[in-house]
Amino acid sequence: MRLLCLAIVTLARLAVATPSSAHPQPHHRAVSNQTAPACRAVPRAKGWPSADLWAALNKTVDGRLLQPAPPGAVCHPSQPTYSSAACTAVQANWTDEFFHSGSPVSVEWNNWTNDTCLPDPALACSGEGYPVYVVNATTPQHVQAAVNFARAHNVRLIVKNSGHDYVGRSSAPYALSIWVHYMKNATLHPTSFSPARCTNVTIAGASLTAGAGMQMLEAYALAHTINHTVIGGNGRTVALGGFITGAGHSILAPQYGLATDSVLQMEIVSPGGEILTLNECQNTDLFWAMRGGGGSTFGVLTSVTMQLIPSPQVMGMTFWIGTGADNTQAFDMLAWVVSQFPDLADDGISGYPIVFNTVKNFIDGSHTMIKGIIGKLIVPGTNNASLLVDRMQGIFDHVNATWTAMYGHYDTTYYPDFQAWYAENYDPSPTGHENLMSSRLLDRPALTSDLGALKLALAKFSAAGQATVYIVSGPAVHKAQPRGGSNSVLPVWRRTYVHATASVGYEVTGNATIQAAMNHNAKELTGFFSAAMRDLAPGTGAYMNEASKYETDWQTTFWGDNYARLLAIKRKVDPTDVFWCTPCVGSERWAQDDDGSLCRV
Fold first, then answer.
1. 149-168 pLDDT, tens per residue?
2. Phi, psi dihedrals of residue 322, rounded to the nearest 5°
3. 14-30 residue pLDDT tens
4. Hey, which CATH number is domain 314-558, 1.10.3720.10, 3.40.462.20, 1.10.260.40, 3.40.50.1100?
């Protein structure tokens, strides 16, 4: 059974063509202040590096400096790369996640490039949302050269990996981008690993050293060659760099810990341009910060060594419980079912449930509307279906005995290893649209202490059509013992059971006034979602990799009590903010103006 597709809230759509150049000169504040150290340099203004300097950088990085046009520019006759045939191909692939991850500048959700050049000739096209130059880095030395150049010439610096980024850190105007997608070198350590400069430290068990650009499907496939697996995400294009630095939730996490908890060693390029090895014996503050403190902040991750686990056999289940959309008991039922999730996790069950709120009925061919829950569950390490069936049958029995007009189904499938489960159940990751997300981590009290409050929160949180209530934390996350004693993930993870998300999709209009209203409405709706879950669980927080970019009190929401230490490390290793993104540790000193320029506040 396939899960429901991502719900998209259509706010409006109008299309007006307004031709524009690929990289227009910024205006207002940027033009008047571009020579001052208060702002990063901008093109065609005093302080921007000369063509000779860019040519020298290109030589230093072995000819890997790119100046790519936006991929959608091929659909716009006003643009130099216009091609009718190429446009047809780009349009056909715009919703393909691999198309975006394979582009040096494109990202998976259009709004993070400010919708500035979509493959629609009826809309305007410019390069305002894209970096000006890209270093296609394949070695740490390439990364080092880019960092040194940006620092020396006051150029805004960003990092793009696969572009699978829900908070928009992978693209920015007037920037030099370090594209680490092709940093895919990998080494398997089948029996043990010894961290560099750690005297008499040998970590038993298999591990993988992989370049930051290695994506989930590649990491899973490589580890599978020795009958192991990484603790990884479900999306195929998710790359290790951003995933690891943000914490990395997984359907395997309740049984094996967060992905970041499995990290044994990292290699980074620091803001000062040093190539550093981080582990429990050297550069320990950065080792702590880079495991949960977020990407594009403390340096560029170039490789990571992760402990592997023997690939477990998997008993899987798909299930759904539904009722008519007009059933006033629907959210009473849903709140009770979701309240069972902490006990399921404690019993070794994890999974990806989704609450749906007034959607087309997938049972009767969309003739009616329904509310309910659908999902995939697993128990790793067993071929015993009763471990799932007994628990879910008890839930179904309670639902049928307590509420009227409920119906549902479940079935189980055995998989000989995790790779077999993943091949059938990966996340297809819909892309190529405008998407804003809100999320919250939910602990046992939030899920069980007040079912009335949970009912109200779930109803609000799923108002766009659906919301995830993923069981991706549990005993192993709570009891994790990362190398070095701890890492910087939000401490709330150590008592979380559910990672809940809600997304808002919207379309693009060629009318600036209408578009501004649509953008505002989308932000307001994600704010409504955030507030609903914050009211339910005020003392928790959110997973920074899948959250609202516009979260209030983001320092506490994403890092909690760890923020003060993270900020101190950031100020020490990057006093001039060579790396800046938002919402990221230490970003408070800068802001991006409406015209795209980055200036101090």
1. 999 999 999 999 999 999 99
2. -140, 165
3. 222 233 344 545 543 43
4. 3.40.462.20
